[in-house]
Amino acid sequence: MMFALVAIISCGNKTNGAASDADSAVVNEVPDTLNTIEAVEKQVDAVYEYWNELRTHHDESEPTLDERFGSKEWQRVRNEVLAIDRECECGGFFDFGEEGPLDPWLYDCYEGIVSADSILVKMRPNGTAEVRFLVKDAVTIKGVPMRWLMKVEDGQWRVANIFFESEDNFDILMNMRAYADDGKFNKNFDVNKYLPGMKEDVAKMQGVGKDDISFDAYGLVDIDLDGVPEVFVQNKEHFYNVVFSIADGKPSVLANSFGATEIYFFEHGVGAQGGCGTGCQMSDCTIIKDSKAVCNIRTIDEYGMDGELAASTKTKDGKEIAAEEYDKLFAQLGEQVNLEAVMHEIEKEIPADSPNLSDYAE
């Protein structure tokens, strides 16, 4: 799979329960017969019973697992991914297993009978549930940990999102969206149109000349799912990464990381966190709406030689604010999400004074 990991820090919970359509504002009327742990467990078992049946009696006219058990949103995004995989010459979205592509429902378990073991269900409001279990087959005795978010849709429990817990809680729906969005956005996207403005912004932050800034790769990520991508650019050699908004037709910085800090994403924003000197830790986040910055919030914590917190400064758009106000703003970012981006190489610019090697050819 053509994934390059967007730098993500280990800060808090890296999974995103709210990332799926399982957490909808629409109130679902759920029959009492469905609103039970037993009903959810029964549906989890039914998924693998159906897969085993399909494998034994293959019939292309029968619905796939996605069609039979996936939510409408899951099916829509999955179909977009499959369409892109058919078009491209790459291995495909799920081609990151050691022995070949992984399956969202099975991970790498397909030998003999496949089943769900040690199912744990947590009922949630509005006809939703969180499910953890081990998927097992004839050779994977210990099982592979899986997590599903499920919702009642069309009168049955359906799977709204799947997480690979053994792959750092890889959020499949979110990253399928990112993959599909890249396939859609990148067809008509010209990164060179924005590079001069990007370099100028980074040069100002770094205190260097514009010609000293270069980028190796870019990725398109629609952080707030508004249909307008944000642009993630990176310089691998000098370890700086920057996320830009291009909503106004020109780039503007949403988040940046240099050296000891790293980029990470939220449902409604993006930020950077890490070291800012000896005994100093920084978190610098931007809340996003309609692909534009709503505000920037920053906290700088300084620690003494004993490791104890000595001072903490919190700001909004550069002005100091109380901790209570900062916490309310930080909550607007939503859950931290484990988001990856498809990265594309940026061709190196050839300096104007470089010799034309063809002039020296025999």
Protein described:
This protein has 362 residues and is α+β, with helices and mostly antiparallel strands. 21% of the residues lie in helices and 33% in strands. Strands 16-15-14-13-12-11-17 form a seven-stranded antiparallel sheet, with helices on one face. A six-stranded antiparallel sheet has the order 1-18-7-8-9-10. A five-stranded antiparallel sheet has the order 2-3-4-5-6. The longest helix has 20 residues, at 37-56. The model is unreliable at 1-25 (pLDDT under 50).
Quick take:
The protein has 362 residues and is an alpha+beta fold. The chain contains six helices and 18 strands. Helices cover 21% and strands 33% of the residues.
Q: State the helix count.
A: 6
Fraction in beta strands: 25-35%
Radius of gyration: 23 Å
Write down how many β-strands occur, each being a DSSP E stretch of 2 or more residues: 18
What's the overall average pLDDT, rounded? 85
Helix content: 10-25%
Tell me the major beta sheet.
Answer: 7 strands, antiparallel
Structural class: alpha+beta
The unreliable regions are: 1-25
Across the major sheet, the strand order is: 16-15-14-13-12-11-17
Name some characteristics of this structure:
362 residues, alpha+beta, seven-stranded antiparallel β-sheet, six-stranded antiparallel β-sheet, 21% helix, disordered N terminus
Layout of secondary structure:
Elements: E1 3-4, H1 37-56, H2 65-69, H3 72-87, E2 115-124, E3 128-136, E4 144-153, E5 156-164, E6 170-171, H4 172-185, H5 195-206, E7 217-221, E8 230-235, E9 240-245, E10 252-258, E11 261-266, E12 269-275, E13 280-289, E14 292-303, E15 309-316, E16 319-320, H6 323-331, E17 336-337, E18 341-345
Helix pairs in contact: 3-4
